[in-house]
Amino acid sequence: MKRVVISTARRHTQPDEVSGNVYLVDAETGCVLQRSAMIEPPYRAEDTNPRGGMRGCKGISIREDQIAIANSAAVFRYDPQWNLLGMISHPSCSAIHDIAFQGDTLWVTSARTDVLMQFDLFGELLQHYYLRNPSPALSKLGWRPPVLLPDEHIRQGKIDFRNPLTHDQESYDRAHLNSLCFLSNGEMLVSLGQVIGSEQAFLLQLKGRLIRLGLWPLFLSFNRAIGSLLRKPKDLHSNLVVRPGKSLSAVVRISPAGRHTLSLAIPDVSTPSHSLLALPDDSVVYLNTSAGTVLHFDPQSGTVISTTKVTDGFLRGAAMLSENTVLLGSKGELIVFGLDTQRIASTYRLTDDPNEAVYDIKVFPEHYADLPASFEEHFERSAGCGAAELIKTGRKLQARDAVGANAEFTDTI
Q: Which of 38, 256, 296, 333 could, after both became Cys, cross-link 57 (CB 3.0–4.6 A)?
């Protein structure tokens, strides 16, 4: 039996409710084998975004000897028996999305800051790429965003972006950096899920102010009335009749030497694209979430091999089940898609919760034990306190990186 592990996020959840889960699923039948509540991030009560924001379980990365699972503020490492090995968290790293092991390091996408960060397995920041810095990729894309974060401020964590009260989200998240994958030649592909220009940024800042003032529900009610009057067709990803200017999704190729070149651009997106997946032949799958399409492309030439619409739902999460078969997520549904046939082979219902959506999908190694019953309770038993408490108090949890050994923790200020 081939199993997959799936992370989910639940929208519109209250601060005391579970906002994300980890599922263990039989990939052949779609049967849910386990569901475990994920560790909650700090500052949930301060997050005013009802549609996602800090909620939920995020990226997953697995290697033979350990697995890493993220929420919006931290990454948690475990051995195959689910012994806690450590926690990685940094003030400049927030709204974490996809993560990926590379050797004895972990790459983490920080959507809130447009920064790609590389950590060692004990949580030390090794290097980073600020995707707003001028580069050949941005020149070709025609995007000239304001550069708000000096490198030294990123390294020092001068602003704690894990706390939404410390900054204006609409100013710092302009590319929605949300996914990455590696090619066989050592190059890295990075998804700029939604590249926002100055006009759209202004409108998003206005929306943020309306939310903080509690006026956004009133505006949406008025907007729906206008839409009904004008008989506008409904957009599954947007409630707005008058929308900000169109934005782009882009894939940037980063060489081992750090050169940034543009690999792909997708125009006219209304919501971020997601989930880069490198295939054995070094072609890549990318999910155009706005259009509900699977985009298969050559990252070197930027040539699109195929584009196939598979859903009207929120397309996110991709994992290879076999040479020509990919498992995709669409809100609470799983889609088995044939790359060779460009057709849906089957679909499965993961959850009946209308507010819960698939985030990431990974094939689960056979030698891994079943999931902990609750990741939150498991962390508290292992560390003696909650992860949110550690982050809020500025303490660092250090674990001995020895698979199968009992972790030894020291808290340092």
A: 38
> Which residues, at least 6 apart from 167, have a Cβ–Cβ distance to it below 8 Å?
159, 161
Q: In what order do the strands lie in the sheet with 3-10?
A: 32-37, 21-26, 3-10, 356-364
Sign of the torsion angle spanned by Cα atoms 39, 45, 47, 53: positive
CA angle 262, 266, 268 (to 5 degrees): 140
Please name the helix (run of DSSP H) or strand (run of DSSP E) that holds residue 337, with its range, or none: strand 333-338
- Evaluated on CA atoms 87, 89, 94, 100, the torsion sign reads negative
DSSP label at residue 165: G
Task: Give the integer Cα–Cα distance in Å for 55 and 89.
Answer: 16
Cα 118 to Cα 155: distance, rounded to the nearest angstrom: 11
Percent of residues in the chain assigned helix, strand, coil, to nearest 5: 15, 40, 45
How confident is the prediction for the chain on average, in pLDDT?
88
Quick: pLDDT tens for 285-341.
999 999 999 999 999 999 999 999 999 999 999 999 999 999 999 999 999 999 999
Distance CA 348, CA 328 (A): 10
The pLDDT of residue 402 is above 60: no
* Angle formed by the axes of helices 198-212 and 216-230, nearest 10°: 120
Residue 371: φ, ψ to 5°: -65, 155
What is the DSSP secondary-structure string of 101-142? EETTEEEEEETTTTEEEEEETTS-EEEEEETTS--HHHHHHT
Total-model pTM = 0.88
Local structure of 341: helix, strand or coil: coil
| Spatial CA neighbour of 14 closest among 57, 45, 54 | 45
Q: Which two structure tokens, joined as six digits, stand for 10?
A: 């639940």
CB-CB neighbours of 379 under 10 Å: 23
* Per-residue pLDDT at 312: 94
Tokens 């499965």 locate to 348
Which secondary-structure segment (H or E) carries 30?
Answer: none
What pairs with residue 181 in β-bridges? 189
